[in-house]
Amino acid sequence: xxxxxxxxxxxxxxxxxxxxxxxxxxxxxxxxxxxxxxxxxxxxxxxxxxxxxxxxxxxxxxxxxxxxxxxxxxxxxxxxxxxxxxxxxxxxxxxxxxxxxxxxxxxxxxxxxxxxxxxxxxxxxxxxxxxxxxxxxxxxxxxxxxxxxxxxxxxxxxxxxxxxxxxxxxxxxxxxxxxxxxxxxxxxxxxxxxxxxxxxxxxxxxxxxxxxxxxxxxxxxxxxxxxxxxxxxxxxxxxxxxxxxxxxxxxxxxxxxxxxxxxxxxxxxxxxxxxxxxxxxxxxxxxxxxxxxxxxxxxxxxxxxxxxxxxxxxxxxxxxxxxxxxxxxxxxxxxxxxxxxxxxxxxxxxxxxxxxxxxxxxxxxxxxxxxxxxxxxxxxxxxxxxxxxxxxxxxxxxxxxxx
Length: 403
Hints:
Elements: H1 13-28, H2 31-37, H3 42-51, H4 69-82, H5 84-88, H6 91-103, H7 106-117, E1 122-125, E2 140-144, E3 147-157, E4 165-176, E5 182-190, E6 196-199, E7 213-223, E8 227-229, H8 240-269, H9 285-317, H10 321-353, H11 365-374, H12 380-393
Parallel strand pairs: 1-4, 2-4
Antiparallel strand pairs: 2-3, 3-7, 4-5, 5-8, 6-7
Helix pairs in contact: 1-4, 4-8, 4-9, 6-8, 8-9, 8-10, 8-11, 9-10, 10-11, 10-12
Keywords: Flavoprotein, FMN, Monooxygenase, Nucleotide-binding, Oxidoreductase
Protein name: Dibenzothiophene monooxygenase
Family: Belongs to the DszC flavin monooxygenase family.
């Protein structure tokens, strides 16, 4: 994918939502075929970059509109309703823009924000295999003269094939945090840097076209101006984790809404069960019950998504430990509700549609496959634990990027 130059400049949030709705309608047309054939959405991601939607969080002093999380969340939900794979691709783009906002120098922010306003896209290289836990990075960043050298292998690098810059999280050799743990930093590496390779080896049953493949870094040199501290983000109250999680929740909520809409269409085409004694399947009282339950789940998830986004916006306006905690708890609640709604709606779809809905040619399994795959991000069982502790004893949740 060739980098986009001179992307459209969005000037307000209403324009952003309109652009997202327009792109979503376009992306939905061939979403099923792309999933079935594992066709990567190169043209669609280029259109997304050209639209200006990748620059919504750029601060006003750098030429952006500094959009509210409520607006950005709705943009992601709209995109996910049309094609969840496309919606997931810019997730890390926005996450690493937030790293720059929190930890970048004024020169770093000026440089990278100008790149994004022109249409540049970031992707992540975070997760690794073989480490004891997911928060351990074997990938190293070693200072050598005026530069750093990064070595390692990353997996699940969503969207890396489409990106102009790869944000690589690595252990900063020889440095420790205030708690004595190895310090981490993020190296922003050009997609074409010598020693960096990306392999499209993602074979997930769902989210098939996210290009979440393997990134290998073999003695990749990075100028110091492109390295940003990461560990300090979590030494003070922040909405970093809540922002990352609410965008994941928006993707799940979008899947849930799309699955419910498809379930309704399938029910209208289905034959009624003979014992129901009705002429149309939509008049079957048992199917009505299933549809009502699924609808409640989707409506609740959407409402909690909006509430959590508003909490994050409030915390960003007045950041304290208290407001940051509320934002994290509310984002966790939205993530749990959205995950449940996406799995329920994508399963009920088959109950409402009957046997014909299970045909391979219809490819309706993509809703459940996308939901099941994406909801494996950041286990909701731990979010429920933190919500419960906060509810019972006002126990403050930990500071990390997953809450």
